[in-house]
Amino acid sequence: MTDKMKCVIERNGVKVFGKAIHALARIGDELWLDPVMKGLAMRSVNSAHSAYACFLFSPLFFQHYSPDTGPAQDCGTVKCKLVMKSVLPLFRCLATIERNVDSCQISINLPDNRVIFQFHCRHGITKTHNMGFQESEALQAVFPSHLCPNVLKAQPRLLGDMVMHFPVSQEEITLSMSPLRVNLKSYYEDESDQMKAMHTEMSLEPSEFDYFQVGVDSDITFCLKELRGLLSFAESHVTITSFT
């Protein structure tokens, strides 16, 4: 059995890594692991391919990071896709992980197509989870962000405070941008839903953003669940959130 990738995450980093998995679980049912020289990328996409997210953990995040410890002739890119329902329970209770886990080792083994998560816990306890993965084409969203006419950057807390005013049952919202303001409002595709549901709308002035560039008036409707997942991570670990 050949280790295609091996990394070790120290105590404080395990909770951060778990929060990233929680955020990706709100987007898609599958998790891509992509170990490359610049770090370990974790990606997911929803079933409609309308929402995509990627977390890239640089080698500095890990106590040890080796993207390919196998023979030189086996150094092709690993195409590793896991079922999210198999991975998420390993990081379900982040508070327990923070108290009891000293480190987590993740390795991808070939040719058996197995991913091994090994948690080294207090009192000398080691928990090992061995799961199979499916070989798949690498998941990568390609879009020219530098060509986007609209760019908004704000503190995650600002966006989180706005989103919290929408009911949990709200599925979609519309983001409207103009040079004068940004609006967020409820969206209902079915007219019967519009009659029964509560409508929420709020606006922000350009001065409330860290960076505000609107070249084209735009209206974008998207799922709220995915945004909430990313903001839950960003509010704890990110200084600036950007929309393009």
UniProtKB/TrEMBL annotation:
Report the record's Gene Ontology biological process terms. Answer: cellular response to ionizing radiation; DNA repair; DNA replication checkpoint signaling; mitotic intra-S DNA damage checkpoint signaling
Which domain of life does the UniProt lineage start with? Eukaryota
Which GO CC terms are listed, alphabetically? checkpoint clamp complex
A molecular function GO annotation: double-stranded DNA 3'-5' DNA exonuclease activity
InterPro entries with a match to the protein in the record: DNA_clamp_sf, Rad9/Ddc1
User: Which Pfam families does the record associate with it?
Assistant: Rad9 (PF04139)
This chain belongs to the protein called RAD9 checkpoint clamp component B
Lineage, opening ranks:
Eukaryota, Metazoa, Chordata, Craniata, Vertebrata
